[in-house]
């Protein structure tokens, strides 16, 4: 590698709390990636070990994968290039092969971005608390010195395809062969689900399942010509909603760009909330764990999921554990508690059988199994898991976020409520009729509101009252 003379590299713009993300050609380049690959080996002590490197369909991912591999090999690690993979395929490979790895993806970010998600052997997460800061510092050192020192023996670079193994593993976890026939519309958003859906749910690599899959935007295209690969935004679900109704489908599935999140649409074209999906999967995972002799299976949920989730978990004989928002918190608590499953309001779903990592595809398979083993439509099934009314997340652009929260606290202090500060401030009516959370964004001037109540009028009343105070 060569460094421009007198140029000082500072990677703090692209190194985030849980991953690396930047604009291609600016804050993330092949030169930077090569240095990060070398630092990854040194910080994790992987000289002489095998590491896994793959990437998504973004145009820069192959070049970046090769650059990372070169940096890693220079520092003495052997590299297996996994080629095109979803993020949960990386987690599968890190778990099944017990090796550390990295994948190039910017998830749901626009086309000009790319990034790196890294994991230790066994798919353990790497975050700013567990090595990412040290990797950044060492990569900057290599870049600013203009050279990556060679290890005693250069590592070898090989190739391995894990798609079939990943697909077989998921099919072992959820047997869909006995499902009633289902028509499924899948919107891959030109992302990695265009590769993984035919492999896992179709007959491309494995025997056919009783599913008729209607593909939407399966062509891998990192320029995202149809819509952004971010199903969290309602406008990005519209094509899927229309297609479900048009084809008379039983269910619609929408994946984000790197296919680690999955959103679900019912046969009427209406979204099924990630909280309802969390409840549905939790029920199945509790029953499965109990059948194998586990007394009180643990389910993790973040504090923004519906209170229906802990209520259902308790009713089914499990134990619900509430956490902060964010996958590093969830994965840590999953490991501490030996939890069987975890769900977030953002449609990240975590499984003990998947090395505590998140996988949109496995969550989708559980929903298909739940739908396929009974005769009713998804709208009816989903209703069982959505007894409350949610506002969804509402952002207010506020500079003095603490002042806004204090205005709300003062206004509500005469009410019969509890307030906790696990992640932002959660206000809960003691009679159980409503709750809301105000959470400041760490990266933007936003205060985020999530509210839930027993019925629509109560939710709207609480929502509007809080927003009036916040935006005053």
UniProtKB/TrEMBL annotation:
Known EC number: 5.4.2.8
Domain Alpha-D-phosphohexomutase C-terminal: 393-467
Annotated Alpha-D-phosphohexomutase alpha/beta/alpha domain residues: 14-141, 165-269, 281-387
Family membership noted in the UniProt record: Belongs to the phosphohexose mutase family.
Protein's name according to its UniProt entry: Phosphomannomutase
Cofactor: Mg(2+)
Single GO molecular function: phosphomannomutase activity
Keyword presence, Ribonucleoprotein: no
SUPFAM superfamilies: Phosphoglucomutase, C-terminal domain, Phosphoglucomutase, first 3 domains
Record's keyword terms, sorted: Isomerase, Magnesium, Metal-binding, Phosphoprotein
Record flagged with keyword Magnesium: yes
Lineage: Bacteria, Bacillati, Actinomycetota, Actinomycetes, Micrococcales
NCBIfam families: PRK09542.1
Organism: Arthrobacter bambusae
